[in-house]
Amino acid sequence: QVEVAESGGGLVQAGGSLRLSCAASGHTFRAITVGWFRQAPGKEREFVAASRGNGGYTYYADSVKGRFTVSRDNANNMVSLQMNSLKPEDTAVYYCAASTTIILSALRNGNQYNYWGQGTQVTVSS
């Protein structure tokens, strides 16, 4: 069983930055793949970024590539999502998800993650 919790959401003006953090516990952290997803009102959940376990390779949605950065701190069981140059269309509830068994080809599929945080609201004003 893996427990996951996000923190760090808030309100920011367009062009600003926010940093989200995801704490995961209950398993060897370096082996946990952590994904970030978001869901805006009236829209489907979408993949944002991921940090793969056992290597830490990172993956991004095209819509955030170059603006968002995923990093992991295995010593503190934490994965962070640094969000720069935020746009109003980035407004959503952001979720951290974890999996100990996900395969590379499924990283962008939220249904393949077993454990989810409660979500944190990110609002970008224009």
Quick structural gist:
By secondary structure, the protein is mainly beta.
Keywords:
mainly beta; 4-stranded antiparallel beta sheet; 11 strands; globular; 126 residues
Helix and strand run: EEEEEEEEEEE
Strand portion: over 45%
Question: Tell me, what's the shape?
Answer: globular
Number of helices in the DSSP assignment: 0
Helical content (DSSP H or I, runs of 4+): under 10%
Q: How big is the Rg? A: 13 Å
**Mean pLDDT, all residues:** 95
As residue ranges, the low-confidence spans are: none
Q: Strand tally, please? A: 11
- The N- and C-terminal alpha carbons lie at a distance of 40 Å
What structural class do helix, strand and pairing data support?
mainly beta
Largest sheet report? 7 strands, mixed
Report what the structure shows.
With 126 residues, the protein is mainly beta. Helices cover 0% and strands 48% of the residues. It is built from no helices and eleven strands. The strands form two sheets. Strands 2, 4, 5, 6, 9, 10 and 11 form a seven-stranded mixed sheet that branches. Strands 1-3-8-7 form a four-stranded antiparallel sheet, with no helix packed on it. The N and C termini lie far apart (40 Å). The mean pLDDT is 95.
